[in-house]
Specification:
The protein is an alpha+beta fold and 237 residues long. Helices cover 14% and strands 34% of the residues. It is built from 3 helices and 14 strands. A 6-stranded mixed β-sheet has the order 2-1-3-4-6-5, with no helix packed on it. A 6-stranded mixed β-sheet has the order 7-8-9-10-14-11. A two-stranded antiparallel ribbon has the order 12-13. It comes from Cinara cedri. This is Endonuclease/exonuclease/phosphatase. Keywords: Endonuclease, Exonuclease, Hydrolase, Nuclease. GO terms for molecular function: endonuclease activity; exonuclease activity.
Length: 237
């Protein structure tokens, strides 16, 4: 089965919050000397809290089986999926159950939809809120002190001020933003990219993205950044 290459963010275990406070059923956790945010696909930087973001393009049982294998082999703590194309919780459970992970939050739409999964050994988490406006969605969970927000904006929607609210420190926002800006490797800016970039500057949020990286989204034999969401985290003030 071929899926778009996932995007992962590694949070070293002493980065801006004490990950040792996260309650797990069996998994030990160790701190590192230098905490940093990095984005890459396969390189192992040591004991870390790892988040995977993927535009899944219609979740299915076959894709869920693959997603049960890849995160387990790569020690993924949280999965953030976009475009699940599920209309309700029952449909998501039938098509999108991933072994070893629990569904922490979800939004439903036949053409869009998101789902957030947490590894079963992580028990210190809560679903904070889910925001929805004209298919623009943001599902917010919190693990110990870390806020994680799964974002999706359709191409034909524009950002409003109500969509782009402050996040608490420490926090990570990931998803499919459907916004273009030259800072992110595009040839030009679009209004959504300008709005999103202004928000990141206003809220002191750093973009986890390397414009020199090869495009990771593949659909209809194309590789592109057009559907590939950057990751954002709020910087220490």
């Amino acid at each position: 089965m071929d899926l778009p290459a996932p995007n992962t963010i590694n949070i070293n275990t002493n980065t801006d919050f004490n990950i040792n406070n996260i309650n797990r059923s069996n998994t030990p956790c160790h701190s590192t000397e230098n905490g940093s945010f990095q984005t890459q696909l396969t390189r192992d930087l040591g004991p870390q809290f790892r988040i995977l973001q993927l535009k899944v393009e219609d979740i299915s049982r076959d894709k869920s089986e693959y997603l049960a294998k890849f995160p387990r082999e790569n020690n993924i703590s949280v999965l953030l999926l976009q475009e699940t194309h599920t209309t309700d919780a029952d449909q998501l459970r039938q098509r999108g159950s991933i072994s070893g992970y629990s569904i922490a939050a979800a939004t439903y739409n036949r053409s869009y939809g998101t789902s957030t999964y947490i590894r079963n050994d992580i028990i210190d988490w809560e679903h904070v809120s889910t925001y929805e406006r004209n298919n623009v969605t943001a599902a917010h969970i919190k693990i110990s002190e870390l806020s994680i927000i799964n974002v999706y904006k359709p191409t034909n929607e524009s950002w409003l001020n109500s969509d782009l609210t402050p996040i608490t420190h420490p926090g990570v926002i990931a998803g499919d933003f459907n916004s273009h800006h030259q800072f992110w490797g595009y040839d030009n800016n679009d209004p959504n990219g300008v709005t999103l970039n202004e928000w990141t500057e206003r809220e002191n949020i750093a973009l986890i993205f390397n414009a020199k990286d090869k495009g990771t989204f593949r659909s209809w034999e194309m590789a592109t950044r057009l559907q590939f969401g950057p990751m954002l985290h709020n910087k220490r003030s």
